[in-house]
What we know:
Blueprint: E1 2-6, E2 12-15, E3 19-24, H1 30-41, E4 53-57, E5 62-63, E6 67-71, E7 75-76, E8 79-86, E9 89-96, E10 99-100, H2 101-104, H3 108-114, E11 117-118, E12 122-125, E13 137-144, E14 147-155, H4 162-169, E15 180-183, E16 198-205, E17 210-221
Parallel strand pairs: 1-12, 3-15, 5-11, 6-17
Antiparallel strand pairs: 1-2, 3-4, 7-10, 8-9, 8-15, 9-12, 13-14, 13-16, 16-17
Amino acid sequence: MTTFELADSGESVDVDVQELIIAGWAGREQAGIDEHIEELKAIGVTPPSTTPLFYRVSADQLTTADTIQVLGNASSGEVEVVLIGSPEGTLVGIGSDHTDREAEAWSVAHSKQVCAKPVSRQVWPLDEVIDHWDELTMASWATIDGEEVLYQQGRVTGLLPPGELLQRFGLEQTRLAPGQVMLCGTLPVIGGVRAADAFRMVLEDPVRGREIHHRYRVQSLPVIA
């Protein structure tokens, strides 16, 4: 059971996560998709067969913890809007599709499974933002060699909106069932994909003047042959 918190009221919402979906290559414009493809080709990742793709990940990989453990030093985060199906309706948070980049070079699907997916504990009801969805922005910062640098930044207009994304996934409604969670696609990286010691991300709603934050540390475990 994962406990989320409605950011404005502090009310807790318990979600029994049963299905975790990563929407890959979910750009709204082909130019943005192509940029992300080229970004990953630079580190050896094979281009997708079609876009978007929906990767399934073990539900227990979802975490609101502030530390994750990874094997080796070849993983990195990607800021993404998160949709969460709950008993209170569909919720919106911010998360990271943390991915093993060495594994990604030979299997994107496998690489998605290797690392935990950190998400914010605080969330908003989707109904509170859907009417001004395109005004939302997200950003991430990576701590590399002790220095925090801007890693990604942009409006969600670069990605498919919730209704269209869920329809592409095969849902007739624009809501997730309780227990379904989807990470909804990422933004181009500033300065190239690279590993970090910590990753911070924010989802901003300028219409209502509020933000959701999450930060997590990355603990690298030794690779033993």
